[in-house]
Amino acid sequence: MTETISTVVLDLDDTLIASTRARRRAYQSLREQGIDPRAAEAANTRWWERYHAGDCSLEQMRQGRWIELGLSPEEAIRIDERYRAHYENIRARLGARRLLERLRESNLNVVLLSNAGIEYVRDRVAALRVEHLLNGVVDVTATRWKPHPEAFQTALALVGESPARAAMVGDNLDADVNGALAAGFRHVVWLTRRKPHTDARVACLPSLAATEAHLLALAGQNSAIHAPTPECTSPA
Ligand SMILES: [Mg+2]
């Protein structure tokens, strides 16, 4: 009999909250300022990579991603504030609150591990009103970014857990899924509708409802582990 899990580590963006949807709307709204949404998104990705590599500060990243598009430093500050106002419009993904409530009812430890800044993470947690359902929130600036194993070890240390009795849940293949596998997690949920994963420790699930059933089964709370999606069983 496989050991049951007692801790779940969760990603935030596009796992518990629908961040990409809100971000794309924010980019579209900047069109009237003469900013191309696709160019802005590409610049944002590049500057986040620089920030995660330690090549710039958060403030430099926030200005640089707009200056790169041709804005003056003053315009960059103004546009970035306008862009970041979309954070208030980010909504919970369907089933997010219920998932956290069920995990808490089942006496599982729940830790949030996001590569976003701790201020952003705490604000989103407060907006969701789920602080009481979490055992810990990792300040990733005090450790290493996912997919570095140290990020996952920090999350587990908050609740004194071993990776053998923990499950990771996230949408990002590199940061969440492969990162958790490298850190020794025995169970990983990859929130995805399309792509297979060849590692048997990874369950590819399309929704938080399916994730909830899967995690509760892993915790020994439910007899039926969610069946893998067909894509998962027959990798292309
Ligand atoms: Mg994510």
Describe the structure.
With 236 residues, this protein is an alpha/beta fold. The protein has 10 helices and 6 strands. It has helices spanning 19-29, 37-52, 58-67, 73-84, 96-105, 118-128, 149-157, 173-182, 208-218, 230-233; strands at 7-10, 109-112, 136-137, 166-170, 187-191, 202-205. The chain has a 6-stranded parallel β-sheet with strand order 3-2-1-4-5-6, sandwiched between helices. Strand 4, helix 8 (173-182) and strand 5 form a beta-alpha-beta unit. Helix 2 (37-52) packs antiparallel against helix 3 (58-67), helix 3 (58-67) crosses helix 4 and helix 5 packs parallel to helix 9. The longest helix has 16 residues, at 37-52. The chain is elongated and about 60 Å long. Residues 226-236 have low confidence and may be disordered. The structure holds magnesium ion. Magnesium ion (MG) is lined by residues 11, 13-15, 170-172.
Give the helix/strand layout.
Blueprint lengths: L6 E4 L8 H11 L7 H16 L5 H10 L5 H12 L11 H10 L3 E4 L5 H11 L7 E2 L11 H9 L8 E5 L2 H10 L4 E5 L10 E4 L2 H11 L11 H4 L3
Helix pairs in contact: 2-3, 3-4, 5-9
Magnesium ion binds next to loops.
